[in-house]
Each structure stands twice: as structure tokens, then as C-alpha cells.
Amino acid sequence: MNTKDNSGDVRLSGISKTYDNGFTAVQPLDLTVPQGSFFALLGASGCGKTTTLRMIAGLEEPSSGTVHLGDQEVTNLPPYKRPVNTVFQSYALFPHLDIFENVAFGLRRRGIKSVKQQVVDMLDLVQLGEQARKKPHQLSGGQQQRVAVARALINHPKVLLLDEPLGALDLKLRRQMQLELKRIQTEVGITFIHVTHDQEEAMTMADTVAVMNAGRVEQLGSPSDLYENPNTTFVANFLGTSNLIEAEVDSKSGDEIILKAGGGKLVLPEARCSAPTTTGGKVLVGVRPEKITLTPADDAGEIPAGRNRITGKIADSSFIGVSTQYVIDSPVCPEFEVYAQNIDRDARLRPGADVVLHWNPAHTFGLDAAQDIDAGVDIEEEAA
Amino acid sequence: MAAVTEAPPLAPAPEEKPPRKKRGRWTPYWLLLPGILWLIVFFALPMIYQGSTSIQTGSLEDGYKVTWHFATYWDALSEYWPQFLRSVLYAAAATILCLLLGYPLAYLIAFRAGRWRNLIMILVIAPFFTSFLIRTLAWKTILADSGPVVSVLNTLHVLDVTNWLGWTSGDRVLATPLAVVCGLTYNFLPFMILPLYTSLERIDGRLHEAAGDLYAKPFTTFRKVTFPLSMPGVVSGTLLTFIPAAGDYVNAELLGSTDTRMIGNVIQTQFLRILDYPTAAALSFILMAAILAMVTIYIRKSGTEDLV
């Protein structure tokens, strides 16, 4: 795609939404989505992600701020004048029109006479050529979903907005459609803004993910960046699982911070700490469960030097095929989670065993201790 | 259930299942029985009785006998066709007026009324709490020659137009076709609004958003999405208005004159004043057949069986 073209940029500046009943769904928000990117707004229900999307579509009027598409300001344009199309959560296909007419709807409204070839091509793209003359209710959920995508894409919008488009599909179909949507996006090169509460979906599909919480963007970045380097406890807990330990700053040496936690010492690269650190101050230390290695306490001497270590006792283990998930009771954290690949299973690692947990300090991240350590923990389960 | 619990545990007792099944099979028919009886007594029997009356000849003094005299139908039709035609025209006019008045109101209640929805619904239904006759008589006062409606219409020269159209005559509204159509419209309006409201209210609001998102202006959204989806309501509303309006005689009786007699008035006079039962029965059958035919064509044409 032409990288100079910025007509598909979406720029939100200071945009906010407060409803008549006083509820503020979106706090003043600045966001730029570059042309051609696959952007995901991720958050639990009620975090303001759908409202943000609807303000871009023109279905919701912002209380303040502006919306730009490329160089054009569209803040006060009604939806039918915006070069933007939406794939609705429940698809919102027109029940009285057949699939062909549903897909042709946007073209006909813009006064395009010869729609046949375009509709046929579009239906082929979503592999529904055979179903053109059926009514929406005669199709399966996955097929309806593809009609909704085709109906929006045929208009060659500058931006395609997807509001939880896969929410109603079963898991297997959802995985399939994720790849399908990703393929379509790469093929047509249109900016996609995808709203979802499913962190795995957001990470699989999007180039850039904005994690939203309580009407604010908590953090924005590439999926791997968000996962490896969360800036807040909400992001750390909402995206996957994190083990967070409260620690005290002991000293600094070079670009590493030495921390004290539960009598032991932990090393944290300064670059991976998003919180200010002063000696004696508190920091939350995080590490992802799959980065940790478990070694039985008897073999503690074999652990290479320079790794962060914590001692504990296995409280629970569950075998889930590809890996085994352990819950470790340790002095610094009562429910430390560890995911171990099932390569060589050590028979001594069973509930009740004393173990040493150790990991490469480079996988440690530091967060500001002045926030709720459990933020974002339960929300994901509610939403899913 | 008792039969099952009493069965010996070792014998699965297949012979005990049939009686239970049989009783279960008949249950729906028992439940239907009151309805079927009702239909027989109040619909089928009167129909048969009317049918036989319509082909009788005789007089009140000598009594009537079934003589298979089908000529009554032809005689009735050739004598009263103007009233038939007028009934259809008035009913059609009232139905169209009901649709024009009722659709915006039903739309308002379904999409815009918010917390006023229930109040407006009650206002729509409220007239039913008074008698049909009293409400129609009230229209006599409303349209009275010296009343405000007539004087306003006169001042605005609306009456000149309606006179020219033949809907009114002179300075009067009462005792003209306009008055009868007004009465019919008023009386049957709720029967239009309720089905319209029901089908409009069922339309998913997201469809409107989707249409707007796909470049349809508000009016196009209405034309291409809202109205087609409300067709079941339009069809049932127009039927519920047209059918009773075509057979109505109260409005023509109270608000009209001898020039605005509808077929209902003719049937009523034949039955109750002239006491020509065969003609009255034949007229009733013709009316019923005509309405059935028109309704069938209408439903076929509107193609509502295709809608959701």
C-alpha cells in the first residue's frame, strides 16, 4: 500500500462522551490510528471502547473533542456522510432483503447503477457466492458474520469499524474468522478498528492494541510490547496472567535495580520499570508465569547464578496437555502461577514439594506500587 | 404417572405405555373442544341458517320455504350495487386516512416516545372505555352545522374544495360522505395503530443505524428498511380497519344521510324494517364473499408471507 496516503488515518483529539444521566463513558481521549493498520480497542464491557467506536462511526455524538479522517473533520457529519462502515455486533443484516441486496445496499444508496459484478466479487471474497439469494435467517452465524463484513467492505470505506464482530460465534469458528478477517485486511489494506473484550483475539489480529479501562486508554502498543512490558497492573492482569510481588528498592547498580522481597533479592532492569524508583521506595515486580522455571529445593545448587529466585511450596498443579500449571505458595505471593512446558516432567514436582522458582531478570517488569494490585484480574472472566 | 410407579421394577411394562400415550394424544382435542363448540354454535350454525334463508321464498304471513331461489342474489346485487360500491369506497378512504394518521403516531410511540410511551398507548386505547354509539354521536356535535369545525373549514375555504370534490354539500359537513368517512376513520383508528405499533416496535434499532452507516439518509432508511419491515403491521392494520368499516352501518346512520347509505344500512333495514330476510341474508353473503376476495388479492399482492 501507498504509505504516504494518510486519508485512512483516524485522529481523535480530546474526544469524550458523557451521557445525559451523567455517566462518563469515555474520558477525554487522544488517539491516532494510522492508515492501513489493524487496530484493536481492548477492554472489559463498559470500558468505553464501543462508545469510542460509535463516535468514529457517527452513531454517537461526542460531548467534546474532534474526529478527523485523514485531513477531513467529520465530528459533526451524520453517519451516512462518513466514509466509514461498521460491522455491527449482532450483524444487523436487513431481514427483508436477501444476501445480494444486503451487500448491494450501500452501493445502491450512493446511486451506483451497475452493482452486480461488484457484489458477486465481494461475495466470492467472503466465500458466499452460492448463498446470494438466501435471506439472512437462512444462514449460519458464521455466514451472517461474513455477509456483514462484505456489506461494509464493498463500499471501500476509508476505515472499517468492527464492533465485537465475533462475539456471537463459537470458539472454533471464532478462531477461523480471526484469521479470515486478518487475511481480508491484508488483502484490501483498509484501516480496521476492532473492538473486543477478548485479549487473545486482540493480540492475534491487531498490529496495535489500545487497552481501555474506565473510559481511558491504559496503554497502547503492539501485542508483544503490551504483554512483555505492561505499564499498569490493569494491563498486566488483563492481558494474560502476571505474578505481582511487592518489593522494596534496595540499591541501583548500573542499569539494574536491586530489590528486596521476602528476605530475598530480585534484579529488575531499569528500562523495564515504568515507576519512579527511589531507594527504600516500593515497587511492584511482575513476571509472566511461562518465564519461570521450577526446580526442586534439593537441586537448588544447580540453578545458574544471576537468576532471580524465590522459594515456595507447590500448592496445586493441573496438567493441561501442552503444559502444566502450578500454583505455588511462596512468602512473597500466596498464589504464584507457573506454567511449565511438558518436556521432561520431574516426578518430584507435585503438590506439597518445596521448590525454587527462578527466571532470567530480563523478563522482570516493574510497576508503580501505588495502584490496585488486582486491577483487571476478574474482569476478563466476567466479560468472557 | 401413577401407572409407572406401580409397575413391578423388573418388568418395564411396555403394555402400560400405550394407554398413557393415548390419553396424551387426545389432550389437545379436549382443550380445543370449547373453542370448537363456540365456533359451531356461533359461526357455523348461523352461517348455515343464513345460507338457507338466502335461498328461501315466501312471505311473512305464509312463512318461508327453501326453494333454491338463487335469483335473490342477482336481484339484491342489481338493486343495491351502488351501496356496495359506496361501502368499499368509504371503507377504503377511511383505511387510507387511518394509515396516514396512524403510521406517524405508531412510529412516534415505537421509536420516539421514550417514557411517554405508555401514556400515549393509554390515550390511544382510552376511547374504548366509552360506547361506540356515544362516541359516534359526539361527532354529530363536533361536525354540527354551527360548530367550530364547520366555521373554520368555511373560513379557510376548505369546504369549497370538498364541495367541488363532492365530499360535502353547501355549508354542511354533517350528513355528507366526508362526515361518514371521518366517523369511520375515528372509530377504527386504534385498530390501525395497535398492529402498526406492534410491528414497528419489533424492528431492531440497530437496523436503522446500519442503514445510516451504509449511506442511507433518514428518509431513505424509512423507505428501504423501516417501512418494508413494518409491512406485516400495515397489512393487518388495514385489514382490521377495512373489513369492519366495509360492513359498518352506525356511522352512515348517525353521521350520514340517505345519499350516504352503505351496504350495512341496507342489510339492517332489510332485516329489521322491511323484514325481507332472504334479501338481507343474500346481501350479507355477497358482502362477505366480496371482502374475502378483496382480502385474498390484497394479501397476495402485498407479499407479506415472505416477511420474517
Fill in the keyword field for this structure:
heterodimer; A: 384 residues; alpha+beta; Rossmann fold; 6-stranded mixed sheet; 5-stranded antiparallel sheet; 22% helix; disordered C terminus; B: mainly alpha; MetI-like fold; 14 helices
Describe the structure.
The complex is a heterodimer of chains A (384) and B (308). Chain A is built from nine helices and 20 strands. Chain A has 384 residues and is α+β, with helices and mostly antiparallel strands. Chain A folds into two domains: 10-228, P-loop containing nucleotide triphosphate hydrolases (Rossmann fold); 242-371, OB fold (Dihydrolipoamide Acetyltransferase, E2P) (Beta Barrel). Chain A has a six-stranded mixed beta sheet, sandwiched between helices. In chain A, strands 13-12-11-14-20 form a five-stranded antiparallel beta sheet. Chain A has a five-stranded antiparallel beta sheet with strand order 15-19-16-17-18, with no helix packed on it. In chain A, a hairpin with a 2-residue loop joins strand 11 and strand 12 (256-261). The longest helix of chain A is centred in the middle third of the chain and has 18 residues, at 171-188. The two termini of chain A are 35 Å apart. Residues 380-384 of chain A have low confidence and may be disordered. Chain B has 14 helices and two strands. A two-stranded antiparallel sheet of chain B has the order 1-2. Chain B has 308 residues and is an all-alpha fold. In chain B, helix 3 (71-112) crosses helix 8 and helix 3 crosses helix 11. The longest helix of chain B has 42 residues, at 71-112. Chain B has helices spanning 2-6, 17-54, 71-112, 117-125, 132-142, 148-155, 158-165, 177-201, 205-213, 218-229, 231-247, 250-255, 263-274, 277-302, and strands spanning 56-59, 63-66. In chain B, 30% of the residues are buried. In chain B, strand 1 and strand 2 (63-66) form a beta hairpin. Chain B has one domain (82-306): Orthogonal Bundle (MetI-like fold). Chain A binds chain B through residues 57-59, 78-80, 84-86, 88, 90, 92-96, 105-106, 109-110, 137, 151-152, 155, and chain B through 204, 206-207, 209-217, 220, 224-225, 228-229, 231, 307-308.
